[in-house]
Amino acid sequence: MASIFGHALVGATLSKVLDKNQVKLLLVLAMISAILPDIDVLAFKLGYAYEHWLGHRGFTHSIFFAVIWSVMLSLIFGKTNKMIFFVVLFLSTISHAVLDAMTTGGLGVGFFIPFNDSRYFFPCRPIQVSPIGVSKFFSEWGVRVILSELLWVGVPCFTVLGIKAFKNKKQSKLNYN
Ligand SMILES: [Zn+2]
Fold first, then answer.
1. What is the Cα–Cα distance from 111 to 93, expressed in whole angstroms?
2. What H or E segment, with its residue span, contains residue 65?
3. How far does the centroid of ligand 1 lie from the alpha carbon of residue 176, in Å?
4. For labelling alongside 17, which of 27, 45, 72, 136 has CA 20 to 30 A away?
5. How far is the CA of 57 from the centre of ligand 1 (A)?
């Protein structure tokens, strides 16, 4: 994984940019969805190997899982805006796997599970892989992770959010005039 901060930031950015109505519930669900796939670290505890389809970066990191999860949440929580719930939540969930496929370590991501168990990385992998577990995170490794995520996740997200805020301001000025 990238760290939970990196993943959550991408979910928040997607919701802020795509949801015109800025629904708070959707923002929170997007952040949760972007972190959720790493729930599969529990598989280690249950005895599944990393490379097993239920192992880390397996099923919960797949496109199939992202579709099921986002359809379910949008049906439960979406009202007249089910479609935008689906789009934001699908992109947030799958953004997790996309970031993971750009990290320096671990096994690749099982994007096509359950149809194909192969694991994939992207050719470009600039993000330092985050340690699994809290104690290891507060270490020199953790610092390297945060710095690489600030650069590769933080800067793009904050740039997009900045542009969005600037545009909103301009728009509200125009409306006021
Ligand atoms: Zn992950």
1. 12
2. helix 63-77
3. 45
4. 72
5. 5
Helix (H) or strand (E) run with residue 106 in it: none
- Picking from 96, 28, 29, 89, the residue whose alpha carbon sits closest to that of residue 62 is 96
The rounded Å distance from CA 61 to ligand 1 centre is: 7
Distance 46 CA to ligand 1 centre (A): 17
| 7: CB partners within 8 A, 6+ apart | 1, 34, 35, 38, 95, 96, 99
- Distance, C-alpha 94 to centroid of its chain: 6
Taken in order 137, 138, 143, 144, is the CA torsion positive or negative? negative
In this predicted structure, which of 6-20, 64-78, 134-148 has the lowest mean pLDDT?
A: 134-148
| Residue 139: C-alpha distances to residues 5, 6, 53 (Å) | 16, 17, 30
Model pTM score: 0.90
Distance 3 CA to ligand 1 centre (A): 9
The string of pLDDT tens digits covering residues 48-86 is 888 999 999 999 999 999 999 999 999 999 988 999 999
- pLDDT tens readout for residues 85-120: 999 999 999 999 999 999 988 899 999 999 999 999
The values of phi and psi at residue 121, to 5°, are -120, 155
3-state SS assignment for residue 9: helix
